[in-house]
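Note to self: user wants both folds in one dump. Writing first protein now.
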Amino acid sequence: MAALPTASLDPVRILQQPLNDEPSELTSTVLLDVVEHCLHRRASEWIFLRELRVGTGFHANAAQRLDGYALNCLPHTSMRRVCYQVKTSRADFLCEIKQPLKRRIGLRYSNEFYFVTPAGLLNTSELPIECGLVEIGSFAPDERSIVNAQSGCLVHFEPNHEIYCRVTVPAPWRETPGPTWQFVAGMLRNQQKAFQGRPPKPPNQQRLPFVD
């Protein structure tokens, strides 16, 4: 399966705050905004969900949330499913790596699994073999050619906000079984809250701040 397709970019209207070169400005919300706009912007093709609660009950697995989840609605793409796990600090990433079972649900319901981080946060050698990496960064106008030269991968530029989204490590394609009714119900409930203007509740775990 090919890497995520390149999309032509308009100004990122969905960004909720201006960005600068400080990594701390790249919050989880901003990172997901950029991923959605650059990689899943076609609403007729993609459904993009945030803080997706897996199921509707209260047993252990149902309480888990996926930071970002994209479903392609076109049959010729095999109804492609992509899971995103956002990490804004190395401490948060290293904690995740030590608990591989935390990724089990995301891997179970997706064909591709990506970590999403500020650019330069991780070394690609630290990635688990089953995961890919999407990096979000800012650039000065004269640095665009440098970013392109350093990337042997897809780079999406949004020049009006000086942001780029780079698929640094394409995730391997995995054949996985279809979703359960519990998962489908969780997706529908997530969409219903979004239509009603009720954002999903934040996860119980607290995001660790970026530390140099």
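First done. Writing the second protein, which came from a different request thread.
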Amino acid sequence: MAQKDVGNKIPIYKLKTTDEVMKYYDEWGDKDKYNKDMVDWNYTGPKETAEIFNKYEKNKDTLIFDAGCGTGLVGMELKKYSFKNFHGADLSQTLIDTVPKDLYQKLVKVDLNKPIEVEENFYGGVMCVGTFTFGHVKPNALDEFIRITKPGGLICFTINEGIHE
């Protein structure tokens, strides 16, 4: 994994409540600032995670749930590997509104710390990049990811180094 400069991200890591997180990301997504910061920070999470998912998932038609889809960076990376069936969910409507049109078949505003309104064994894969970090998505979300993933399906996610343990 690439070494990251987290100095500029500290305000994100100090957020405590879901409302604080939502407000921060809604403001951050305005005027494409979020995407610009991802480029400036050389954020490679979506690229690296899509690469790993592609290594193990051979069915390019599988339906993928992008949990915490943000502006669609993971979907764009998966598309490079010829995956094309995505549902995205994010806490920030502002970020969802910036997702490129026709990238995802379905986009919903969701708090991933609560039960996901999807039937069991629905998705062939779940991607969750950049949300398991300070003040964001809690570990219980993994239970939901397992519940909504088909038997034999893949769950591919990142965890912030600082909260890993």
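Dump finished. Worth passing along: Residues 17 and 145 are 21 Å apart (CA to CA).
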